[in-house]
Amino acid sequence: MPKPSPQSDWTKPAAMAIPKGGLFENPEQGRYGPIFPKTPANYGFSIIAKIIPGREEAFYEYGRKIEKTVAEQPDCLATLKLHYLRWNLFPIKGDTYFQYSAIFDTDFDKYSEDAIAIFTATGINTVFENLEGFPKDWKTNAPAVIKFVREHHCPSFLEYGEYPYVSADEIKKALRVKAALGQMLDQMQ
Amino acid sequence: MLEFDDIQHILLTRAPALTGRYEFLSFKDAAGGRAWLDAVLYKVLSAKAMRESVEGDKRWVTVAFTWNGLRALGVDEAALATFPDEFRQGMVARAKMLGDTGANDPAHWVDKTASPDLHAIAILFAREATERGRCAVEHAKLIAECPGVEVLSTLDVEATPPFEYAHDHFGYRDRLSQPVIEGSGDEPTPGSGAPLKAGEFILGYADETGAVPQLQPDVLSRNGSFMAYRRLEEHVGRFREFLRANGKTHEEQELLAAKLMGRWRSGAPLVLAPEKDNPELGADLKRNNNFNYKNEDPQGYAVPLGSHMRRMNPRDTAANMNRHRMIRRGATYGTYLPEGTPDDGKERGLAAFVICASLVRQFEFAQNVWVNDRNFHELGNERDPFGGTHDGTLEFKIPKRPIRRKITGLPAFTTLRGGAYFFLPGLKALRWLAGLS
User: pTM here?
Assistant: First the structure.
């Protein structure tokens, strides 16, 4: 199935059905393999992996840590060009699974080494150490981490965007223009 | 401590050469290839030897191998398997990701570097053309004596006039921003950042993360590096015509040329000389690289966000910069096209080497993320005006108050004519390779 051409009209909500496996025909090639498509909900991934039994508390501790890190240094994740990140834990047949979903504006392949460096600096990766099969030498072995991410990524089969393809930067620009316009109007009173 | 007596000189030094020659070789016979290497390796200087004898020397030799070349010399499969994927696959297999498509597609390359039979490169830099001629004859004799060694292609390189400073055929001053390796004895120029850990460029040393990149066996990888070769034709007539078509006066044309590059052709950076050229600044190594973007030019009013300089080295506007730096070597090739002369249709350009410890993290990253990403800095429909792949459908935006200038239908100023990935072994490794059986 060929990839539909992207709609750039943000006023028109759009949905995209994605073939099994997550890739359209002739996908764009990244440095570490084929790139998952940009959809009306932009780029994204969902990593699902089993946690090492008994490690649940490490995830909650990690949640508090990330909250603090971002509060202290709000631009610490800027390079990742994120919209949203979501972390979940859920049970399947007595085991606990972890899901990490991200929506961002650039394909992960492009910034994968930078992402790992940021994860190292901010401690995001520490939670991955509690997942089964995560490479023990992750700090120095970017290709192994990228392989783990690719192997544990469960691609979407459907994505929807209320304002399709709009980047976080564009949203921030629009809000800045709105704020500046408000300020301008204040000055005219 | 860097092992200066084992590292090939090209990694740490630049030969004072005005000419040179690259020869691309194939080994049809492993013993023949090893005989060639055995004879040539005594001419390959270490960084230490080069520094000691540079005043008296007239020529400098470097040798490097493709993955197929290492196999052709007899490196065993277990050792070959330790090389990173991108090097094993080679530049041709990575073309789509690198953006080497359309006119830049390896199918159109002119020097047989796209062939799987490409095994080695011998790089010669010489002070002048007579010495180059002498070396070429000598090398041809050596090759004739080594069974199964064939020359796939050669390329003569030479500096373009005026010779007082290095510049490309478009006239831009070159070699202004080079990373410095910690422990090399070199001092970075102001603005070039602190010296980087040797492992970013040389295998067997700690890199910026503290890891030591290494291959097996150790003797093969220690003091080695990887090298991406790019033969980039520069369409000088087309470039000058573009400037004339898009700038009414000489001043406007020079400003446009500066906007595409990020520097005036003199080398003066637009951040420091936004309105008018300042040739004195351009030539001053203490000042011409001493700037940043984040606070000094966040919107790109001086240096457009899509200009060559801002893509190749985003400085403080990209994360993790120390992990994406590269050492550049190389030269121009082809005859000089004087200003005012119609294009003679002859090929001329840059034949460059990018040296780094990880092709995927350094060279390929720059190519994929900075040079050929149409949406770099949210630009939407641009690529690097010089290094990117162009088919006439892309644009170039020049931030300007009150309204930016957008040039559509940017022509291709360059075409990729050849390329390859090489492994640049240390001297002990060269001897080890020559002694394989």
Answer: 0.94
